[in-house]
Amino acid sequence: xxxxxxxxxxxxxxxxxxxxxxxxxxxxxxxxxxxxxxxxxxxxxxxxxxxxxxxxxxxxxxxxxxxxxxxxxxxxxxxxxxxxxxxxxxxxxxxxxxxxxxxxxxxxxxxxxxxxxxxxxxxxxxxxxxxxxxxxxxxxxxxxxxxxxxxxxxxxxxxxxxxxxxxxxxxxxxxxxxxxxxxxxxxxxxxxxxxxxxxxxxxxxxxxxxxxxxxxxxxxxxxxxxxxxxxxxxxxxxxxxxxxxxx
Length: 247
Ligand SMILES: C[S@@+](CC[C@H](N)C(=O)[O-])C[C@H]1O[C@@H](n2cnc3c(N)ncnc32)[C@H](O)[C@@H]1O
Fold this sequence. Notes:
The protein is built from 7 helices and 11 strands.
């Protein structure tokens, strides 16, 4: 399934959960604090800006933000919050789309680099980030750590979240380094809703090599936006890559 088909009107309508989940202040607060500090006095570019979950509060902080996004319905939701002058968006693929302007920060959050399903596209995405940055500029990636330790030999699926009304289940194709996330939401009736998204998972070391191919150096890696130490047990990471200031 193509990403454009996945992020359709229905997905866009259901995406925002104001005040809870990925929209909770304890999630967004540290994210926006860190990104605003990394942008400094410059402008920021968000790859896969979606409905503006992060871009809108970052722009409200005074950071000029531009977006790239494939899905028109997701952009439609963003436009219910801010106009084109406040957050301009280029419709297109984050691996290849060129945006006018100069940026001190490009960021790609919420595991979205994994929505590119080949290694070649993921490397292109790094190259595209580098293309938009001024010397010394940074590319920030938020990504989960593949949970293959949960997968015993012979098993192809894991449940990564189970709570009242929701089950998150991943199915793996280890050979192609692909995983399909299945999000089941249900209530007291017999009806359930399923949202599925395909991903190419990436190990931190592979991500660093992609960055290196595009001219970046790893500046920092933490387990979250607040700067918690990244360890062998961390389930995800915030990695900051930098173009050397004197390139
Ligand atoms: C999980 S959402 C993240 C949206 C937003 N960044 C956030 O943090 O809420 C993933 C978004 O990536 C977009 N997307 C997926 N592949 C893309 C690509 N190749 N280029 C641009 N946008 C893409 C989807 O349309 C969707 O809006």
